[in-house]
From TrEMBL:
First and last residue of the signal peptide: none
Pfam families: HTH_5
Ranges for domain HTH arsR-type: 1-89
GO MF assignments: DNA binding; DNA-binding transcription factor activity
Species of origin: Clostridium symbiosum (strain WAL-14163)
Keyword DNA-binding attributed: yes
Name of the protein in its database record: HTH arsR-type domain-containing protein
Gene3D superfamilies: Winged helix-like DNA-binding domain superfamily/Winged helix DNA-binding domain
SUPFAM superfamilies xref list: Winged helix' DNA-binding domain
Source superkingdom: Bacteria
Keywords: DNA-binding, Transcription, Transcription regulation
């Protein structure tokens, strides 16, 4: 399993903040942009990186695109970390 893209995506504080915003549920791209002092194009770039890493999903609804967390990648990372610790997810 390749975690390189995931860890690279998580290394940026703006992208981590976007994930933090999405933990409460899906958000339209414009609503995400409003939380930052950056251009829409910059946030779009961050969203693209998060999507490529599998950390978020997008869904078009009318003229808006809504982004949501994809927790399966995080589950994979947590399971990998547990195996490094000599534990399995079944033990927790």
């Amino acid at each position: 399993m390749a975690f390189g893209d995931t860890f690279k995506a998580l290394s940026d504080p703006t992208r981590r903040e976007i994930l933090n915003l999405l933990k409460d549920g899906p958000m339209a791209a414009g609503d995400i942009v409003e939380h930052f002092k950056m251009t829409g194009a910059t946030i779009s770039h961050h969203l693209s990186i998060l999507k490529s890493a599998g950390l978020i999903d997008d869904e078009k609804n009318g003229k808006y695109i809504y982004y949501s967390l994809n927790t399966t990648v995080m589950d994979d990372i947590m399971n990998w970390i547990l195996t490094l610790k000599g534990e399995t997810s079944d033990e927790k």
